[in-house]
Amino acid sequence: MAGAVMKKNAENSFLIPRKGGMRVDVQVFSSEAEAADASSLEHLRNASKLPSAVRVIGLPNLISENGFVSGCVVGTESALVPGIVGEDPNAGIRLISTPLKAEDVRPRQIVEAVRKAVPLGKKGANVKVHEGDFRLLLEFGIAGLQDVTNKSGSFWEARIEAEEERDARKTEGDGSVLSNSSSVSHHAIERGQNELGTMGDTGHFIDIQIVEGIFDEKAGERLGLFKGQLVVTFSAGSRDFGHQVTEEYMKLARRLNGERAPERGLSFLDAESSEAGSYIHALGCAANFPFVNRQIITALIRDAVCRVVGRKAIPLICDAPYNTLRHETHRQREIWVHRRGATTVLPLDEVELREPGALVIISGPPMGASYILRAGEKCDSTLNSLSVSAGCAPAGEKGSNSKQRASNRSNVDQVVRCLVDTGLAKILARLKSLATTRS
Predict the structure, then answer these.
(1) Which residue in 131, 230, 252, 257 has the most C-beta neighbors within 10 A?
(2) Other C-beta atoms lying within 10 Å of the C-beta of residue 251
């Protein structure tokens, strides 16, 4: 059983000791690690067998999904693993606030307006662009919006450039990863070209929420948050475009290094190879798509809310991307950090509240609670990473039906308690869903 291989390291922290080809120990943060899903732990053990594995970490939302696990962090020196990043690169959760008290509005009316403004699944795009404009957005992200030539449609009517500029400053890298779209197949272009401004069809959501409690009054005040406030949280990702990019490079990795991989889903690309260079550019494009997509959806949500309550300031509080691969320096060592179902959170002394990486939104089940978190004093022990969902697969993950996902879902309060008790996170606020639209 899984529990038999676990050694308790500290409260809510366990180790799977290195043995049988493992290059490093596996660290698991969980209040239920001894009862963790055996297949999840097996995937992590195999990740530690990668040729250049440096760190392998399981977070409290660890769950087997779609050939690997969600809720993990894997650091390597030279192996880039598309299968760890997953099929929805740079998916993310955004929080936007309103100046409204929840008691003064009808949340159901707002969610209906939002549902009409933002299509779910395959129900059409709000931004239809030709291939040249689409490649521009893939190469420049949010910054490319100003140069799109065909500006017809609901988004362009809702778009306010000053708000977009402020949003970009609160988004990692200003919402732009300079990339070359020549590393992306024409098939991927075709699949994603008409999906901008739409929600994904597997677990993505828009929640109308109330700020139920503020745990850090000073930080809440600086962010403009107050108890009883109406806010909007939503998740959106790379859609079919990101799925196609990941699928193609997973196949390439299997063809080149499948025989050297610890398991099929851990087939990798050597960082110094030309194929890895192409993958980095393609992954940059797959990151720019959701940056642009979330920005478009933000403008549409603002417009929908204002149509119900009148023109109001609706600022972006944070954008927390997950399913990422980045080259980072940790303890004076340069490594490639894969985060799946996890996002980057920067130490308290390195980032201001309004800057990218300062805040994380961890979402619970539909009509449940969510939390706004900051880094704890020990966040470096997870390579500055935190969970983004409470045990269920984040938006974009496939591979299990709703009943299976529900049975694996951890209580969001329990996950957050584990993150706090281990010193990985601090709670800023708790949110409660009032109305939701989910695919």
Answers:
(1) 230
(2) 13
Token reading at 206? 């828009």
Over residues 211-266, the pLDDT tens digits come to 999 999 999 999 999 999 999 999 999 999 999 999 999 999 999 999 999 999 99
Coil, helix or strand for 397?
A: coil
Say how far apart CA 393 and CA 402 lie, in whole Å: 10
Q: Which of 134, 84, 73 is nearest to 279 (CA)?
A: 84
Give the model confidence (pLDDT) of 91-108 as tens digits: 999 999 999 999 999 999
pTM: 0.93
Name the superfamily (CATH) of residues 2-438: tRNA-splicing ligase RtcB (3.90.1860.10)
Return the domain boundaries, the chain.
2-438
**Pairing, β 269-270 against β 205-214:** unpaired
Based on C-alpha coordinates, what's the Rg of the chain? Answer: 20
Instruction: Give the residue from 29, 96, 19, 134 showing the smallest Cα distance to 295.
Output: 96
Instruction: Single out the residue of 360, 356, 365 nearest to residue 343, CA to CA.
Output: 360
Query: Beta strands of 40-197 (E only): which ranges?
Result: 53-65, 68-76, 79-80, 92-101
